[in-house]
């Protein structure tokens, strides 16, 4: 047998074997019971995107209650904090008011001290008439006696005088008075009248300013 005839025989044999195998497989498939396929009634419906709910209503309600409780707690804390701040502000205002009253009282005391006359220093001494200067004569007779201060006062001083010595004849009559006062000196007048005679007289003086 030549080569072409041999190839033809092989093709025929292979085809016959393949056909027999296919028929066998078909027979086996026919022996199987295939369940009927039910029609999909929902195949024609559009896809429902909201069909799946990720959270249940109870879960969402629980979350809402928890959030409301948290908000209520925050509001309570904020109210307490506001009350605390308000109390602190009231306390500070009370302290400021008390300090203002203290300052006003000190200012009033300072003004009173500034307005009140105060004594910086005092000087004192004695002035008197010469012996027998007013021992004779009649009527009103006097001598003006000037005392010069050791240092000039910052303002006109207040002068007080008092009797130190007196020598006179019968019917003693004596008057001593401050006539002039300046920051640097003052004048005291000693006088008598009628028929009285003063053999000697002197007075203390004190000047303060």
UniProtKB/TrEMBL annotation:
<dbReference type="Pfam" id="PF09458">
    <property type="entry name" value="H_lectin"/>
</dbReference>
<keyword id="KW-0732">Signal</keyword>
<dbReference type="GO" id="GO:0007155">
    <property type="term" value="P:cell adhesion"/>
</dbReference>
<protein>
    <submittedName>
        <fullName>Hypp9113 protein</fullName>
    </submittedName>
</protein>
<keyword id="KW-0175">Coiled coil</keyword>
<feature type="coiled-coil region">
    <location>
        <begin position="71"/>
        <end position="116"/>
    </location>
</feature>
<dbReference type="GO" id="GO:0030246">
    <property type="term" value="F:carbohydrate binding"/>
</dbReference>
<feature type="signal peptide">
    <location>
        <begin position="1"/>
        <end position="20"/>
    </location>
</feature>
<dbReference type="InterPro" id="IPR037221">
    <property type="entry name" value="H-type_lectin_dom_sf"/>
</dbReference>
<feature type="domain" description="H-type lectin">
    <location>
        <begin position="147"/>
        <end position="207"/>
    </location>
</feature>
<dbReference type="InterPro" id="IPR019019">
    <property type="entry name" value="H-type_lectin_domain"/>
</dbReference>
């Amino acid at each position: 047998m030549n080569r072409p005839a041999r190839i033809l025989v092989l093709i025929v044999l292979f085809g016959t074997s393949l056909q027999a195998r296919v028929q066998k497989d078909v027979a086996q498939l026919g022996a199987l019971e295939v369940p009927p396929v039910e029609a999909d009634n929902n195949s024609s419906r559009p896809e429902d995107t909201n069909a799946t709910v990720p959270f249940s209503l109870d879960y969402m309600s629980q979350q809402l209650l928890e959030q409301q409780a948290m908000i209520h707690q925050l509001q309570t804390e904020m109210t307490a904090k506001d009350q605390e701040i308000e109390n602190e502000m009231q306390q500070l205002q009370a302290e400021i008011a008390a300090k203002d009253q203290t300052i006003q009282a000190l200012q009033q005391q300072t003004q009173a001290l500034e307005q009140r006359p105060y004594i910086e220093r005092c000087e004192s001494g004695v002035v008197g008439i010469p012996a027998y200067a007013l021992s004779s004569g009649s009527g009103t007779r006097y001598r003006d006696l000037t005392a010069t201060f050791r240092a000039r006062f910052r303002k006109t001083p207040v002068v007080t005088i008092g009797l130190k010595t007196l020598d006179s004849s019968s019917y003693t009559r004596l008057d001593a008075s401050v006539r002039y006062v300046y920051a640097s000196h003052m004048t005291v007048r000693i006088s008598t009248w009628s028929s009285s005679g003063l053999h000697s007289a002197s007075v203390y003086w004190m000047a303060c300013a």
